[in-house]
Inverse folding.
C-alpha cells in the first residue's frame, strides 16, 4: 500500500502499523512514547495537531488478542496521552476509537478543537469529514510547525 504523510513523503508499505514500529515510516515529530508493547505517535497522514495513535508492536487486529497485562499497559498509555492532551489549549475533548477492520491494532485519540465548532457538528459521523478537511486545508508550513511543537510538548509531558 502507498501512503503519503503530512510532509508529503511517500512510502510503500505492506502494513503501516508494522512500518511505524520498525521505523521504516517516521511520524511527524517521531515517536512520542514507546512502551514494551505499544508506540504512541502523531497521526502520520492527517495534519491535525494532537491527533494521536497508539499502535501495538505486535501484529494483531483486536483488543481481544491482547493479554490482560497488555490491555492494562494500553489503557495506561491511553490515560497518559489523554492527560497530556489536556495541556493543549485548543483541545476541548477527545474521542477514543479502536476498530478491528484494520490489519494492525491501533487506537485513535481524536481531538475536538475549537476551530471545528463552526464547520462540523460534534458527532462521530463528523470525524472522517474533519480528517478530509485537515488533509485538504491544513498541510501548511505554519500548521506543520505547530504539530511538531505539539509533539515535543507531549513528549515532555508524558512521563516515562
Amino acid at each position: 500500500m502507498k501512503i503519503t504523510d503530512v510532509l508529503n513523503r511517500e512510502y510503500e508499505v505492506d502494513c503501516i502499523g508494522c512500518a511505524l514500529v520498525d521505523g521504516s515510516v517516521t511520524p511527524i515529530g517521531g515517536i512520542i512514547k514507546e512502551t514494551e508493547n505499544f508506540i504512541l505517535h502523531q497521526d502520520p497522514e492527517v495534519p491535525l495537531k494532537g491527533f494521536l495513535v497508539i499502535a501495538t508492536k505486535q501484529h494483531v487486529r483486536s483488543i481481544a488478542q491482547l493479554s490482560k497485562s497488555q490491555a492494562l499497559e494500553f489503557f495506561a498509555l491511553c490515560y497518559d496521552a489523554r492527560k497530556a492532551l489536556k495541556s493543549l489549549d485548543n483541545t476541548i475533548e477527545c474521542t477514543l476509537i479502536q476498530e478491528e477492520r484494520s490489519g494492525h491494532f491501533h487506537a485513535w485519540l481524536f481531538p475536538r478543537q475549537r476551530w471545528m465548532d463552526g464547520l462540523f457538528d460534534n458527532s462521530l459521523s463528523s470525524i472522517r469529514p474533519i480528517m478530509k478537511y485537515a488533509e485538504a486545508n491544513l498541510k501548511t508550513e505554519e500548521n506543520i510547525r505547530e504539530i511538531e511543537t505539539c509533539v515535543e510538548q507531549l513528549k515532555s509531558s508524558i512521563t516515562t
